[in-house]
Amino acid sequence: MLSNEIEEMVKKLREDIKKSVSIFQLLIVLEHGIENLENKGLKQSDIETALRSIDILSSQLARLSSCRIDIIDKALRKDPRIKKLNNYTHILVEILHRDCGIQTTAPAVSIPQQRYIALEQKTPSNLCTGRYEIQKLIGEGGMGAVWLAKDIHTNNLVAIKVPKITGNPIKDDLNIKKIMVEAEVLKNLDHPNIVKYIDYFVEFQKPHLVMEYIDGEHLEKKIKTPKDAFDERETIKLMKTLVDAVDYMHSKNVVHRDLKPKNIFIINDSSLNIKVIDFGTAKFYHSQIEYGEGIYSPGGYTAPEQLRFMYSPQSDIWSLGGILFYILTGLHPISILPGYPNVTTPPNIENIKQFKDINQNIAKVIKKALDPNPINRYLRARDMIKDLIGETDLFEKTTKPKIMILDKEIEIEVDRVVIGRLTQTIIETSSKSIDKVVTRIEGNNLYIYINDEKSYISRLHVELIRKENDWYLRDLGSLNKTAVLEGGEWKIIHKQYKIPSELYKLSSRAIISLGYDVKLGPYLVLTFISSPQQQSV
């Protein structure tokens, strides 16, 4: 714990950061603050912790540098008054990545405004990075283009996505960032029904994302009219692979946010095998494009709450319901959603069945997935398939409450659950290899620890308490807040840093975010169910 004297120094540093009017001034303020802390005998690790705790730092860094890591780097190299701060550059980058969604795993790309026009070339170089031999253009849109290329190291065909450079700095920055986001997301996914990441590089100061080449066509080309719609057997077969892919990405804390027929490719091998593509608008923790930019799919595939920037994994569940309806009927889901996006009730089953004699059970699945209230939809993608094929989950027979987080399902047999970040002490005292989620029972308490490399989740972030037949949630004074999805809106549960909130009564099905930012949205989403049997249709 920091002494009162150190806490006062950090408090003053925070105020000086708040007053900074340029990135150079801000970095010099940090330089002096760090020097003062070092003079008090603090180790580098303690100073790093102090920097992470200054809540105004991320917003000031983002505002003064226009969210550009390269500007910070330039300032560090240019100003001779800044020396010690070079040892803490990684912390500044981490804070920008954590709080502002600025990418760090892929190289940062900066293009001065006067040079945008010079980069307006129609094709990449004939031999990118000496490895990828460009063949032809296979796709182009407002955001970028996709080129077919040959990997001369493996002789395999690949697809290379590059951003479109228009000369408009705002549009071009967005196009560039979409490629960077997609690269980071795909690098963290490995599933047979998700397009595979191969490589990422920067050439001519433009990011290039290399992915596996998919020989096929998207669903909207496959199903052009209602006559092209699939039968129920084909639909269920295709949906099983699609839902499995979405369930997997949700287990990795990825929300696609743009699932639609055009982003589902059917491979040309007569097996109805599919690949999910286009992760440029996906959300991975707080890695994403700027909040609210361009995440809308015509036809009713975008969940209503997502149009208000209140997205969650349930937003993808809505999209799956729309895709299921489209595969069966060849019609977009907006045809059964009068008044969309201002809908307040799910589609009527008879309206669903009027376009085709759809099985009653499948119609119920579509209705549940397209419920305007996210909490009434399927809590997990996999539960859609269980209802489609009539499979009963053994869990539905139990009355024990349950928490679902990342790829873990944890039954609750105690009256108090504490959720927080996995610390180095816990890692060192563990007798086995550490999973992403670790649980411990101590008396009547269940502790759930999450291995959060960004340290955005607090060590003791939130608690769930059972009182008689009800469950309550309390934020434990976390740094980055807690939120509960309620009626399609995220409700922040937080009082103050290091001061616990009041108890908040949970519904029988609750979607909770550990960490929430009004601009960046939820950080890590978990699901709590006090009445498991309510999952089914």
Account of the protein in words:
Residues 132-389 form the Protein kinase domain. It comes from Ignisphaera aggregans. The chain is an alpha+beta fold. The chain has 4 domains: 4-100; 113-212, Phosphorylase Kinase, domain 1 (2-Layer Sandwich); 216-391, Transferase(Phosphotransferase), domain 1; 395-535, Sandwich (Tumour Suppressor Smad4), CATH 2.60.200.20. Helix content is 30%, strand content 23%. It is built from 14 helices and 23 strands. The strands form 5 sheets. Strands 1-2-3-4-6-5 form a 6-stranded antiparallel sheet, with helices on one face. A 6-stranded antiparallel sheet has the order 13-12-23-22-19-20, with no helix packed on it. A hairpin with a 3-residue loop joins strand 22 (509-517) and strand 23. It is globular and about 75 Å long. The N and C termini lie far apart (50 Å). Residues 102-120 have low confidence and may be disordered.
